[in-house]
Amino acid sequence: MRSALPSLNALRAFEASGRLGSFKEAAAELHVTHGAISQQVRLLEAWLGAPLFERHNRRVVLTPAARAYLAEIGPLFAQLAQATARYGLPEAVSRTLTVNAPATFTLRWLVPRLERFRANHADVEVRIETSNEPVERLKDACDVVIRGGPDTFYGYVMRPFLTEERMPVCSPALLRRLPLRTPDDMRRHTLLHTSSLPRVWPDWLALVNLPALTPAAVLTFDHFYLTLQAAVDGMGIAMGPSALVADDLATGRLVAPFDGPRLPSRSYCTYIADEKAGNDLIVLFRTWLEDEGDAFGSA
Question: Which of the residues 103, 214, 231, 286 has an alpha carbon 20 to 30 A from that of 122?
Answer without folding.
Answer: 103
